[in-house]
Design a protein that fits this description.
Elements (H helix, E strand, L loop, with lengths): L30 E5 L4 E2 L13 E3 L5 E5 L10 E7 L5 E7 L5 E8 L6 E4 L9 E6 L5 E8 L16 H6 L24 E4 L13 E4 L5 E3 L3 H7 L6 E4 L1 H5 L15 E4 L6 E4 L3 E4 L3 H8 L7 E4 L8 E2 L13 E4 L5 E5 L2 E4 L4 H5 L7 E3 L1 H4 L3 E5 L4 H4 L3
């Protein structure tokens, strides 16, 4: 599947080199997993053993996520080899497992007259990735991260089957054998992560312009245009640069569609205008009167064209033949001013901070009357729901 070029502008002032290798790779980071869109100059210099070559952290919240290596998970304390340029420079270090689940977070201020700082690792699970973040405006440079030890192959213990005597006699269980309880699979910790390749400097190539979001399915999903991207995310601050090897580890999934409750869409070869519901379902707005009743007199300003080649990313549902808001709309009660999320036949109130977590954009709020709300059931307060917050 060919990814169409997105007209996004990102600035990065380094040439990527995602492999490093002298010195024992079992103790040091082997590859760059991701780099923040904030400026980190020459992040590959933080790979391998300390060698006097540095990755420079130029901005607060600039970060680099380092891959310690496949089957080389760290188990011991971590040492950062650094050089501060301004007094007060500080860091945050996050240890993550193979699924990018954070196991431990540590923060600290770099000592002025030292070039190494040790971070105690106390979690029981081995870490695969280390994310190092600058948390102050003061500048500093990272040479290397060194793990004191790596995980060793564990001895496989084969448990014997219980004997008939053990089964029938039992021990505090009346002779019953308790089946192990399977733990529920946790949601992918990478869900919602935004990634793209570093610009290769070649104006002809386009694959490095594509931005992806990681879904609950563990796959990467491309934004087909900047308009689609901005319906979900207002800026690019959280987009992380990722190396080709790690990007390829995420299988390519379906393209992202316009976020429900934001733009209205149409195809360039058909004048019909559609609202978008969850799952990329399109519902034709059957008349201008309905469009005005739902979206106001300036409803046409919401309309955006979807390229013919991406129209099949959507499915067409029932037409909208009355002024009933579509699922996924954010509505303001015209009588009370309360902001509500509409889903099927229920409405949910937005508590403190929930709109920020969900990234709801006030530009797309619609008005709803008490009369229309009377056909809905009060669903209570909306909770943080990744099914609503992210496209996949």
């Amino acid at each position: 599947m060919k990814i169409i070029n997105l007209i996004f502008i990102f600035s990065l002032f380094f040439t990527p080199a995602f492999a490093h290798a002298e010195a024992p790779s079992d103790l040091y980071a082997d590859a760059i997993y991701a780099v923040s869109s904030a400026t980190v100059y020459q992040p590959s210099n933080s790979l391998g053993a300390p060698d006097g070559a540095y990755a420079d952290f130029f901005d607060e919240l600039a970060y680099v996520t380092l891959d310690m290596g496949e089957d080389e998970e760290g188990t011991g304390d971590l040492t950062l080899t650094y050089l501060i340029q301004e007094i007060g420079a500080a860091y945050k270090t996050e240890f993550m497992d193979v699924d990018l689940t954070v196991l431990q977070t540590s923060t600290g201020t770099f000592a002025t007259y030292s070039t190494e700082t040790s971070i105690d690792y106390t979690a029981e699970t081995a870490y695969r990735y280390v994310k190092v973040t600058c948390i102050e405006d003061e500048l500093w440079r990272l040479d290397s991260v060194t793990s004191a030890s790596v995980s060793e192959e564990e001895e496989v213990v084969v448990e014997e089957e219980p004997s008939e005597e053990q089964v029938t006699s039992g021990d505090e269980t009346d002779g019953e054998i308790t089946e192990p309880v399977e733990e529920e699979e946790e949601e992918s910790s990478a869900r919602g992560m935004l990634v793209k390749l570093v610009d290769d400097g070649d104006a002809i190539t386009t694959v490095d312009a594509a931005v992806y979001v990681i879904g609950e399915d563990g796959m990467r999903h491309a934004f087909s245009s900047e308009t689609v991207y901005r319906s979900w995310f207002q800026d690019f601050e959280d987009v992380a640069y990722i190396d080709p090897t790690n990007l390829a580890s995420y299988q390519l999934g379906d393209n992202v569609t316009i976020r429900p409750g934001t733009y209205l869409v149409k195809i360039t070869t058909d004048p019909k205008v559609y609202a978008v519901e969850p799952g990329g379902v399109l519902r034709w707005v059957a008349s201008e009167e309905i469009a005005i009743a739902l979206y106001g007199s300036d409803w046409a300003e919401r309309v955006v064209d979807v390229s013919d080649i991406f129209w099949n990313n959507y499915t067409v549902g029932d037409a909208i033949t009355s002024a009933t808001p579509t699922d996924g709309s954010i509505a303001v009660n015209s009588s009370t001013g309360e902001v509500l999320y509409l889903s099927a036949d229920e409405y949910f109130s937005l508590g403190s901070g929930i709109g920020e977590y969900m990234r709801f954009n006030t530009d797309y709020y619609i008005s709803i009357t008490e009369s229309t709300l009377s056909s809905y059931v009060d669903g209570g307060e909306l909770e943080e729901d990744p099914e609503i917050a992210y496209p996949f």
